[in-house]
Design a protein that fits this description.
about 50 residues, mainly alpha, 2 helices, DUF465_sf
Length: about 50
């Protein structure tokens, strides 16, 4: 059973995934931005694993 919190985290994870893909495909991706997005995505992934 998925809770609202789990659904919200899953949605945020998907948004971050798209943002990472978009940034990575730019001609000159910003390494700092990519690192920050990946860190946020990892934090959400860890929180999802704890639920």
């Amino acid at each position: 059973m998925q809770t609202a919190h789990h659904s919200a985290l899953t949605a945020k994870h998907a948004v971050l995934d798209r943002q990472i893909a978009t940034e990575a495909q730019r001609p000159l991706p910003d390494a700092v931005t990519l690192a920050a997005l990946k860190k946020q995505k990892l934090k959400i992934k860890q929180e999802l694993a704890q639920i």
